Every structure is written in structure tokens, then in C-alpha cells.
Amino acid sequence: MSCEDVIQVDLPTSAPRLVIDASFSVFFNEFPSTIEGSVILKLSAPFYQEELEPANNATVFITNTNDGNISQFEENGDTGIYEPIEPFDLPNFNDEYELTVVYDSETYKGSVNLIPAVPIDEISQGEGTLFTGDETEVLVKFTDDGSRDDYYLFDLDFDLYLPTEDRFYQGEQFVFSYFYEDLEPGKEVTITINGVDRQFYNYMTILIDQSGQNGGGPFESVPSTIRGNMVNTTNPDNYPLGYFSLAEANRLSLIIE
């Protein structure tokens, strides 16, 4: 027989930083075309704290820097989730969009362009398994655009994500398998492909490697600080965490048999 003692190591702490999770997906191929997403503001926490505190009472808006059009956001209760007051105008690929967050008398800004994606050709249920034999295989098929270098972020449902680049399948049709655990028959799985730039691809690759895919989402506390594309213009030393992205997206759903 043996026994275990849980030892909690005293780790250095620092002042909380603002965490900005602002990811928007634009579905041009659906009718009607829609844009989905919100701005989630939280405060970073010590390593052992599982929940992040919401950042309340911020001013949030997105500006189209080409025509000056502004979309205002408001907080949904005290959740730290900020949603657009009026429906978005669908973004244009040639325009630049700037997210502004004013929190605790400091201003944070980040600019992006809408990044194109490609359709998902097909998703289907496979028969393969991994180690336990209880996994469910889902096959995803899509065709890359050979006229450009593409980076994609697959949202595999259930807070599971997969970044990929077209370096090895430029302009070709590509099929990959993803294995799910604990999927019961009748469960619906929705796969979404998002177009992202190289910076966001690298950011998500590092973030997923550090945080793991444990159902908590990719923006939970991680072992080390990862800088995103938002900048504190008031006090650069008090830089934020998180990212602002704007992606063309396509999705398909599958009912598990």
C-alpha cells in the first residue's frame, strides 16, 4: 500500500491582466448570411485558480477604419460578455477593423482584416478507433485554395480546436480524421472551418499545446504568458492577453449513428 500527499507549490503571482477573447465568424454561404461572436473580457488569475473573474463595466466597440462605421457593444449582465447592440453589417475582405476596449481607465486596441476560408466538402462518420476502442471517428474533407497560402482553425465542437496550414496540401483536397470520446448515438457534431492568418495560427497552436483540450476552451489559464494582437495604448507595460480575430467560416453538421 502507498499513500499520496497533495503538495501545492507556492508560485509567484502578479497583478491581474485583462484577457480579451474576441473571435468572430462570418458565414457568407448560409441564408441569410450571418456573423457570430462576442467580446469576452476577463481578468487573469493565479495558476491554481480555475475560474477567471469577469471584467465588468468596460466600453467596447469595433470600428471599420475604411468608412468610420462603429459597432457598439454592451455587457450582458455582469458576465464580462459584451454583445453588439445592433446587428453587424457584414464585413468586407478589403476593409480593416479595429477593436477598442476601455477598461479601468486604460485603452486597448487591435486591428484585423477578414480572412477567407474554403467550404467543407463533406463530413462523415468513420469506423476507426484509437487506444480504448470506444472512440468515434469523424472524417472531414475540404479542398484548399491553391491561389494563396492558407491557415485554418477548425472548431470541432465541444470546445475542441485544430489549427492547420496548407503547406502540405496546397490546392488539393485533404481528408483528416478526428476521434471523439463519449459520443452517444444521436448526438449532433458541428464542424466549422475558420480562415485565420499566420499570426493567429501560431498563437492558437501554442495556446492549445499549453492548455490542452479538456473541454474548458482555449482561453483558460495557461502555464505561461502568450501575447496576442491587442495593445494597451495607455500603458504598454500593462499589456493584455487574448486575441481579436475576424474569420470567414463554413460549417457542416453530422448526427452520430
Question: In summary, what is this structure?
Answer:
5% of the residues lie in helices and 44% in strands. By secondary structure, the protein is mainly β.
Give the helix proportion (percent range): under 10%
Could you give the order of the helices and strands? EEEEEEEEEEEEEEHEE
How would you state the average pLDDT, rounded?
89
Structural class: mainly beta
Terminal CA distance: 44 Å
Structure overview:
- The protein has 257 residues and is mainly beta.
- The chain has one helix at 198-211, and strands at 18-27, 34-43, 53-54, 59-64, 70-75, 81-84, 96-103, 106-113, 120-125, 136-143, 151-155, 161-165, 173-180, 188-196, 231-232, 241-255.
- The strands form 2 sheets. Strands 1, 2, 3, 4, 5, 6, 7, 8, 11, 12, 14, 15 and 16 form a 13-stranded mixed sheet that branches.
- The N and C termini lie far apart (44 Å).
- 27% of the residues are buried.
